[in-house]
Amino acid sequence: MIDETKMAQAKKVYQTLCEAIERRNWKFGKDEEKLLVHFGVRGEDLLMQFILIVDAERQLIRLLSPMPNKMSEGKRMEGAIATCAASYGLVDGSFDYNLPTGEIIFRMTASFRGSEIGEGMLQYMISCACAVVDKYNDQFLGIDKGEISIADFIATRY
Questions:
Q1: pTM across the whole model
Q2: What backbone phi and psi angles, to 5 degrees, belong to 134?
Q3: Which of 11, 15, 100, 106 has the most CB atoms in a 10 Å sphere around its CB?
Q4: 73 secondary structure, DSSP code
Q5: C-beta atoms surrounding 5 within 10 Å
Q6: DSSP per-residue letters across 86-142
Q7: pLDDT in tens, 31-81
Q8: Please, which residues bridge with residue 60 across strands?
Q9: What residues form DSSP beta bridges with 100?
């Protein structure tokens, strides 16, 4: 059971999160019981999906963005290498890779334990995640389709 103080802080953060997205005039879905919001944004080329969860127990904001495709079986090792190379160069957030399924998810977290989270922090998380996902989602797709070699992908990172 989550103590009342943690839940009160989480609900405050959740309200600020909803207000931050509303200020962008974006349509979004929310689950107030789970303290979760989800929305889609069109990037330069592909639709990006985002889920933000306010974790009351751990006092975290978790942002997740699954890539629109999974790496095919024949490209799974290249997908693992690409996600490592992409994550290595990121200032904030990382890509998680599920080798058995080929699923790639961008993940970003921020703690609000013992602190106030303002709208600016949430806007930063959303903007940063949008920029990173938009940069890499089509490149991961290109690797999967054989349009980009893993060597060329890595060469542009370093």
A1: 0.92
A2: -65, -35
A3: 106
A4: G
A5: 9
A6: HHHT-SS-EEEEETTTTEEEEEEEEE-TTS---HHHHHHHHHHHHHHHHHHHHHHHH
A7: 999 999 999 999 888 899 999 999 999 999 999 999 999 999 999 999 999
A8: 55, 111
A9: none
